[in-house]
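re: ur question from earlier - yeah i can do the single chain one, its not a big deal. heres the input i used so u can compare w yours
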Amino acid sequence: MKYAKILLIITIAFSVNSCSKKSDSKHLKLTYIDKMVEAPANVSIIFKVNDAVNYPLPGLVESNFEIYEDGKLISEFEAARKIQDKPEKFKFNLLLLLDLSGSVLDSSLNTLKQASISFINSVMPNETSSDYQEILMSVKWFDGEKNIHDLVDYTFLKSTLTSSINQIDNNISSDNSTNLYGGIIQGISNIDDRVTLYAEAGIISAGALITFTDGTDQAGWYTSNQVTDVINKRDPSIALYSIGLGGEIDKKALENFGKNGFEFAEDLGDLIPKFEAIAQFVKDEAKSYYLFEYCSPKRSGTHSLKIRITSEQVSGDMTETFSAEDFTGGCTLE
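and the output i got, formated as tokens:
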């Protein structure tokens, strides 16, 4: 199957400096991603599930789902169906973008390295995991120069990522300024290129930019309006997370840079836990995509298909249409 780029549409309600989950949910949110309709009677839909405060919802099983065709509940005995917790071909591209300007190198580097390694170990799957090689991460950094710098290209190897972090030292940069806006603009562009490349190959792909900074933009290569424009117009397949450290942080800007989750550390002692909080959120994000496949009993006409999910007594649904023209018998699911 060839699917289009994932449309990762999330609007998350957070407290001022936390991406912790809330419990005042009223309904689940299902986001349509893509669908495939093909002979003899196969219908497949990819979608994403978030709870009522848009926290990603992984771990759903077939008993959580009800399927309606033209308003009628379809049982598993009427039509063969299968629900997977992720599409067969799926790549989740993470870009960890680190502020290595002068203030970080002078006072926070060792703790930042520990926090980054903790994040990598938490997010990246082990070799024995079923999603090994599905999540790839790159590490890049910025200082005051116009362009961001590569530390390590996208890889699924934890050892490569942690080794690159360990190699950072106080001499990595000679520019003490901070090109925060440029870093975010170029980071979004980098992930967008990745997602587009996978889409052209028929592979479902999403991306996430995780930005760490301890201050505000000082270099002035780009304006706040420019970075806000890029954020608002970015492909919705790209999620944004941010982690801020210290008293120079503009918390409103931090939230803007972390549309899908942000954390603020008052001091170095809070930094590792904040990285770990974002790591859990990112892991759940990558596991909140589902693929529904079934064999429709319809043989002509246009029909509606409603997927309804119930989890912990909270429900949500989405409805799509499909054409059953030229459908015949003989449908099977792999």
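The CA atoms of residues 56 and 284 lie 6 Å apart. not sure if urs matches, ping me
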